[in-house]
Amino acid sequence: MTIRVLLADDQTLVREAFAMLVESARDMEVVGQAATGRQAVRLARSERADLVVMDIRMPDLDGIEATRLIAADEDLAGVRVLVLTTYDTDENIVDALRAGASGFLVKDTRPAELLDAIRTVAAGESLLSPGPTARLIERFLRSPSAPETGGPECLSGREREVLALVARGLNNTEIAEALGLSPLTAKTHVSRIMGKLAARDRAQLVIVAYESGLVTPGSV
């Protein structure tokens, strides 16, 4: 199955570089390029992209608002958004996750890691770049409108272990290896945790883990 990727970045050279990288993968194709957030929303609708690689700072409509429009559009329910940002200078990552982004990576990510991230997010999982996660969540918890979810009190001991590893940025395979489980069992645990906590995706699971004190900033 070919992943249909839309690239949104206001810098032409960046878009072209990403396009060459994506097209080099046999399981992906670039179906459009957008220089503004408004173009990204329009092309997501017209080209039926599976995933949008979204920059934050763009003219006309920024990546956060574009993400919010895509996430709120029922006709685009299957479209996932992966934010790429220069994290140290961009203070809007929290808003992007709240708007509906399925994950984020910093722009100095290695090419192979970006392709893997696209595959992960397109497959329906969420992805957080492990390095800045603690700083991200620490700032998020100081914001007034964090998402309302359940607490981890309803989880079993094993589920709490899985939640803690999700908060540290591990994917299902890595969680399985860490706990001596099969990947399918790890995936099942994550799905059950999301259901119990009424969380939309793994990004919200990370928020719950930090908000409850199960994981603390600086421990990642």
Automatic annotation (TrEMBL):
GO terms for molecular function: DNA binding. Residues 4-122 form the Response regulatory domain. One of its GO terms (biological process) is regulation of DNA-templated transcription. The keyword Glycoprotein does not apply. SUPFAM superfamilies: C-terminal effector domain of the bipartite response regulators, CheY-like. Residues 148-213 form the HTH luxR-type domain. The modification 4-aspartylphosphate is found at residue 55. Pfam families: GerE, Response_reg. This is Putative transcriptional regulatory protein YxjL.
